[in-house]
Amino acid sequence: MAGLALAGPTGAVLAAAGDVRELLTRTELDRAGALRSAGDRDDFLAAHALVRLCAGRLLGRPAQGLTVVQSCGSCDRPHGRPRLAEAPGTGVSLAHTRGWVAAAAADGPVGVDVEAVGAGDVDWRTAQAVCTEEELAALRADTHPRRAFLRQWVRKESLVKVGVGTLDEPARLDVPVYGQEPPRWHGWRLLDWGGAEAVGCVAAREEMRLRLLG
């Protein structure tokens, strides 16, 4: 069975999720409440609701009956790679950016990332730190280098979330340049999406289905 990824604007996801207080744990609600920006709070709530909706659709179970637990292994703070308390064998991942959220669920490891495109130019110092020479050449040749950079970034971030790399060494993840097929990396399937507002990617061993909300 193929895995499932869901993504969409924060407002559309919150509208589809209903009352998030019925979905999220007290810990998650407290984490959201500690964020200063109302937009950041909404993005956090939407992402944590969406990962339940995504896993629920995959498993054929109500989202209200799924508990998301996070721990990093290095401290006692509730962050890090998420997992489902009721279905620990199911891989889940979530991401949020300014005004957009994404989530994924699969039978095995899965990682998802999403980034708002926004305006402005590429931070070339950052690009040089995280991209290979081939990737940099492709960025310089692209008509929209910022979006092209973010497409590479979400691919790398999704792979980091499945545990095959770290953000300390993103340039070592020599992922295919966006537009080159097939979009795979050492056996991992990369499913891209996005356009003018946001771009995203899911990494998994298995085939993934994508549904965009809103």
UniProtKB/TrEMBL annotation:
Keywords attached to this entry: Transferase
Keyword Cell membrane included in the entry's annotation: no
Domain 4'-phosphopantetheinyl transferase: 109-162
Membrane-traversing stretches: none
Record's signal peptide: none
Top-level taxon of the source organism: Bacteria
Protein family per UniProt: Belongs to the P-Pant transferase superfamily. Gsp/Sfp/HetI/AcpT family.
Protein name, entry field: 4'-phosphopantetheinyl transferase domain-containing protein
Organism: Streptomyces virginiae (Streptomyces cinnamonensis)
Source species taxonomy: Bacteria, Bacillati, Actinomycetota, Actinomycetes, Kitasatosporales
